[in-house]
Design brief:
Elements lengths: L3 E6 L3 H11 L4 E7 L3 H11 L3 E2 L2 H6 L5 E4 L5 H10 L4 E4 L7 H14 L3 E3 L7 H12 L5 E9 L4 H4 L21 H11 L4 E7 L10 E7 L5 E7 L8 E6 L2 E6 L2 E7 L3 H7 L9 E3 L11 H14 L10 H17 L3 E2 L4 H13 L15 H4 L2
Parallel strand pairs: 1-2, 1-4, 2-3, 4-5, 5-6, 7-10
Antiparallel strand pairs: 7-11, 8-9, 8-15, 9-10, 11-12, 12-13, 13-14
Helix pairs in contact: 4-5, 5-11, 6-8, 8-11
Length: about 375
């Protein structure tokens, strides 16, 4: 195999953006597309000169693809991915890999059983700042972690929510800002700061005319006794995300795309009990950081996925790690809806019961016109 033959399933805004990315990756070849909308399917099929299928299972049975990129609404990610894996087809899933952690479990288990390559589209992991931050955390330079913080606005207009019937509904999307806009930031937060063991959250619909949350906040507790804080919303601009991880030996700050590392000459525990001076503080040094030269964005995730299939290259975003963000999201929604702290791992049955109840009262959105427009930020990455 010289190139990985790709089928893209789901031709909405993100799916169409990925078509362009695949065409620019040397190791990939677009060979089929699929969408339930026959008109869109025909248009894209003709535009790219590849067969189009309105039924994704027909694409999977066509023998035209070695791998699929799934860009459908969230609930279909595990269903389609598992069907592909059972046919020996490699799978690259858009985020999140599932709406519920129970479905994410099944997705990951099938990948392990089938032995296919499974990756998730967490393109922010490719950024040089994130690659370096990951090395810093893995080296243990910060010592024992004492506190974490993540604040990530993800503004969206009402027009965005009014672009499709499935958006911002429990039945069609499975949540609001947490399940749609926030997974990228949550993935980085968990990748660098680790998974908390308990969350106490609040979720609400504060501004938009939608049935799911557009704001979420949570206090976090970690296995080692550390505390943390998380906040996201679609009601705030500009997109100035902030992440801070504090340890005994220093602090790492990632804000607005800038990474900073502060080291202490003496650790907090040692200095606290060794100094004889009443008003003394540990000496702080801001480290000079050199960012690695590397490819970034959606294309790099696709290229890495292909090279993992072709040459066994290590995945930047393994699919089994996609379960982290789903676990965290489910915990926040469950805690917010129940009004109580929730332990992680999440009780699978309790969350399924909550989600099913919300889906029963969910209503499809009434909209004037369906719009399939690729996010312009995608086109620049």
């Amino acid at each position: 195999m010289e190139k990985v033959r790709f089928g893209v399933i789901g031709l909405g805004g993100m799916g169409q953006g990925h078509l362009r990315s695949i065409k620019e990756v040397q190791e990939a070849e677009l060979t089929a597309v699929s969408d339930v909308d026959a008109e869109i399917n025909k248009k894209i099929s003709e535009e790219y000169g590849v067969p189009g299928f309105t039924n994704y299972e027909e694409l999977l049975e066509s023998k035209l693809v070695d791998a699929v990129l799934i860009a459908t609404p969230h609930y279909f990610h595990p269903e389609i991915g598992i069907a592909a894996m059972r046919r020996g087809i490699h799978c690259l899933s858009e985020k999140p890999i599932a709406v519920s952690v129970s479905d994410a479990d099944r997705f990951v288990e099938e990948a392990q059983r089938s032995g296919v390559v499974f990756s998730v589209m967490y393109q922010q992991r490719t950024l040089p700042q994130v690659r370096l931050a990951r090395k810093i955390m893995e080296s243990g330079r910060l010592g024992q972690i004492r506190r974490t913080c993540m604040i990530e606005p993800n503004y969206r207009s009402q027009a965005y929510y009014d672009s499709a019937t499935w958006r911002a509904t429990w039945k069609g999307e499975g949540g609001g800002v947490l399940i749609n806009q926030a997974p990228y930031g949550i993935d980085l937060f968990l990748l660098l700061g680790c998974m908390p063991s308990r969350v106490t959250a609040k979720v609400r619909t504060r501004l938009h005319n939608i049935e799911v949350e557009d704001e979420a906040t949570a206090l976090l507790e970690y296995p080692n006794g550390a505390w943390g804080y998380y906040y996201t919303t679609t009601n705030e601009a500009p997109h100035t995300s902030f992440m801070e991880i504090c340890g005994d030996n220093g602090k790492m700050v990632y804000q607005g795309g800038l990474l900073k590392l502060y080291s202490l000459k003496t650790s907090i525990p040692e200095f606290t009990f060794s100094t004889k001076e009443m008003w003394a503080s540990p000496e702080v040094v801001e480290e000079k950081l050199e960012l690695p030269q590397c490819e970034t964005g959606h294309k790099e995730i696709i290229r890495n996925f292909c090279r993992s299939i072709l040459f066994k290259e290590e995945l930047i975003a393994p699919g089994e790690q996609g379960i982290w963000s789903v676990e965290f999201i489910n915990a926040l929604i469950l805690s917010g809806k129940k009004g109580k702290p929730v332990d992680i791992p999440v009780d699978r049955e309790e969350y399924e019961e909550l989600l099913n109840g919300l889906k029963k009262i969910s209503r499809e959105r009434k909209i004037k016109k369906v719009q399939r427009i690729t996010d312009p930020h995608h086109l620049r990455k």
